[in-house]
Amino acid sequence: MARPRFLKLPPHQQQAILQAALEEFAAHGFHDASLNRVIEAAGISKGSMYYYFDGKEDLYAYVAQTEFAGLFEQVGPPPDFDAGDAETFWSALEDYYRQLLQALAASPQLAAMLRGWSAAAKNPAFQEVQGELEQASVPWIEQALAAGQRVGAIRDDLPASLLITVALGMGEAMDLWLMSQPVDPESLPAHVHGLIDMMRGAFAPRRPVH
Amino acid sequence: MARPRFLKLPPHQQQAILQAALEEFAAHGFHDASLNRVIEAAGISKGSMYYYFDGKEDLYAYVAQTEFAGLFEQVGPPPDFDAGDAETFWSALEDYYRQLLQALAASPQLAAMLRGWSAAAKNPAFQEVQGELEQASVPWIEQALAAGQRVGAIRDDLPASLLITVALGMGEAMDLWLMSQPVDPESLPAHVHGLIDMMRGAFAPRRPVH
Amino acid sequence: MARPRFLKLPPHQQQAILQAALEEFAAHGFHDASLNRVIEAAGISKGSMYYYFDGKEDLYAYVAQTEFAGLFEQVGPPPDFDAGDAETFWSALEDYYRQLLQALAASPQLAAMLRGWSAAAKNPAFQEVQGELEQASVPWIEQALAAGQRVGAIRDDLPASLLITVALGMGEAMDLWLMSQPVDPESLPAHVHGLIDMMRGAFAPRRPVH
Amino acid sequence: MARPRFLKLPPHQQQAILQAALEEFAAHGFHDASLNRVIEAAGISKGSMYYYFDGKEDLYAYVAQTEFAGLFEQVGPPPDFDAGDAETFWSALEDYYRQLLQALAASPQLAAMLRGWSAAAKNPAFQEVQGELEQASVPWIEQALAAGQRVGAIRDDLPASLLITVALGMGEAMDLWLMSQPVDPESLPAHVHGLIDMMRGAFAPRRPVH
DNA sequence: TATGAATGAGCTTTCATTCAT
DNA sequence: TATGAATGAAAGCTCATTCAT
To answer: Which residue of chain A is at minimal alpha-carbon distance from B161?
Structure first.
């Protein structure tokens, strides 16, 4: 995950490398990305790249993690899902999710990387990386889930890990669907509302059927 | 999609090639799969491979399609979702889905290929292949969706394409979750029930909130 | 040079093969021409091609020779260069040469093959072929040269083979130059006149310089 | 045109690669030349070849250009064709041309490459290379032509481009003819004299026919 | 007489990585 | 701390030709 040496570089040079790598990975995915092209675009030497990073995977992991962190930094911390009832929980979630999507829409390269993530993640050498990355996103989801259960907004009759996985899958599907549509920023809130409504239906506690 | 020559081969040789390719694609995905390895494992010459198939993509498409067809052949046609009310719709869907999952569990390599499908599908050269393949699966989903709406089991206030995409995402997530758990065939029905219950919550028509 | 078997084929099939080969060789030259494409275009089997011809070179040689012969057949036999004086010799030559060029302009594929000839001829395996081909064109040139010398139109102080080679080179250069110009059929006679005039200057007997 | 890296190599290694490539291209022409053979003969790795040159065409261009430059360097700059009358023009041209041919006779491999040049030049990817190369030879020909016209040695009733093309064709033909003869260095001047005499006849201004 | 299945050598090119300096 | 030269394995793919039938 980026040798300490890299962090000692002057920021503008870190940025140059990061940006070059982000563009390359976003454009070609992990496999087809070429370190040679990154090196050339970044204007550093081949030896330096291997001096700063352990290899292609290491670079990929660092870029993904850094950009991902930047995304959350940009959106800000999640709200306090505990404060309120089920209704306020869902509307807070919708708000936050919408903000995330909007931020992501503003970083098309990160979005492209994330979309290629599932492909890259199959590489066994990535599981370590994957673990680190998920620690950046899953925790708040877990906390939101726990909070949702506390306020009675989320069912607790299924394993939490299943709920999380399915929620991520629904989110990814929504992302995919949005990508395949003619983009209309104004209608985003409506779509997000639709998705959250589906999630609510899926994850809300079952009511007894009369 | 496999030159006719290939189909004239003695079945055991077709099988050898198919099996070698399936294993390679399942293990490495399309990109990282090596035709050379397939050729070696199948015990044929390089020229023969290109005599039978038009290239890597062609081989992949043929393997995916063949295995996919085999899966549905094994499970049989979907039931008539129109016959009944919402309740019978959902239970019929659950039954059928459970059968699919059970069959898939018996073909881990096909499962692996399917999991890599979304990654491969990004390749523009695949859209033709993708189209053919989806025609094998999407139609029954669409029909099921339409039937579900007719019998009042599925909401119609959201675009059908969104519902389908999200449903597939949920299914994929479930698949993923099952892969990550210690496999316990006996508990599969319960998990499927849970998933269908979530789908039902997500896709059932909204009831007025009192 | 085409096995006798080939000549027993029904003419339309001979034509199909000949035409397919001509197009391929004209379009790609000898080296880059693909027998596979010829076979496919001709609608015959691979085995048949090798049953009729000895290989790629053999096919090329046959096509070139046949088309070349056809060209001369179309234009007709050269005039009797012996009948007249130097002046009539040169005008007869100009007439005949113009007819050849016009016929060649009507067979762009043969023209393309001829243009690629010098490239193909470097292949040592071609020298036999080359010899055969030249026997179709050189003889009348030799006869014309001899006649020209008899009537006092052509110098005899240089080796005949050199005169012939240079004459061919000048003709090829003219062909090349015509190819590189915007084509204007009406101005062809003028260009031919210019070329023959140059040839006349080059090959006419030296007059004593006063 | 040869990456700078190549020029940093110790001269003997540059020579080894250059020589291997020259021999291969001379023997087989561009198309049939095999980079693998060059690599093997040069005793370098495949990766190194692509580290030094951009590909087959790049190598060819570099070899051709380098050898061509060497030829002119060896012969020296063309004389001042403007100084004198028609008679001195033609004798100066003959002198210079003889020197060129003598130098070329000492580099049979370069001669072979040049002979294959017209074949290689058909490749569209070569037009850039071709342009660079022609700038080394065509200019002095053009200047000589213009000078010849100024001093009244060359006709001006035909397009200059046609004159140049035909002159090159005659030169190439002479080259070809010399190659096909038993080589006799002592008779070269006589042959050159014959050729120049033909050129003079072809390109000298027409005298009025009485 | 005719077929077409089968082949393996060959092609150009890309790439991540190493290592001496 | 930084460089960039050097590499070899691997990739996908084409081809003319052979040969059993």
So the answer is: A177
**Window from C195-199, D75-79, D176-180 with minimum mean pLDDT:** D176-180
Question: Which residue in the set A158, A202, A206 is minimally distant from B202, CB to CB?
Answer: A202
CB B143 within 8 A of CB B171: no
Q: Which B residues between 34 and 73 have a beta carbon under 7 A from any strand F atom?
A: 34-37, 46-47, 50-51, 55-57
Give A31-91 as a DSSP string. HH--HHHHHHHHT--HHHHHHHSSSHHHHHHHHHHHHHHHHHHHH-SPP-TTSS-HHHHHH
Q: Using an 8 Å Cβ cutoff, are D179 and D111 in contact? A: yes
User: Distance from residue B181 (CA) to nucleotide E16 (C1'), in Å?
Assistant: 35
CB B204 within 8 A of CB A201: yes
The verdict on residue D108 lying in a domain is: yes
Test D201 with C197 for CB contact under 8 angstroms: no
Measured between alpha carbons, how far is residue B95 from residues B34, B80, B189, B190 in Å?
38, 12, 9, 11
pLDDT tens digits, B41-68: 999 999 999 999 999 989 998 998 899 8
Whether residue C210 lies inside any domain: the answer is no
Tell me the residues of C at the D interface, defined by beta carbons under 8 Å apart. 29, 31-32, 116, 118-119, 122-123, 157-158, 161-162, 165-166, 168-170, 172-174, 176-177, 180, 191, 194-195, 197-204, 206
CATH number of the domain bearing residue B146? 1.10.357.10
- Domain contains B93: yes
Instruction: Read off the pLDDT of each residue in D85-109 and give the average, rounded to a whole number.
Output: 90
pLDDT in tens, D29-68: 888 889 999 999 999 999 999 999 988 888 988 998 888 8
| Owning domain of residue B63 | 4-203
Q: Between these two residues, A31 and D149, which has the higher pLDDT value? A: D149
Find chains touching chain A: ≥3 CB pairs under 8 Å.
Answer: B
Q: Is residue B208 part of a domain?
A: no
**Number of domains within chain D:** 1
Instruction: Give this prediction's pTM.
Output: 0.81
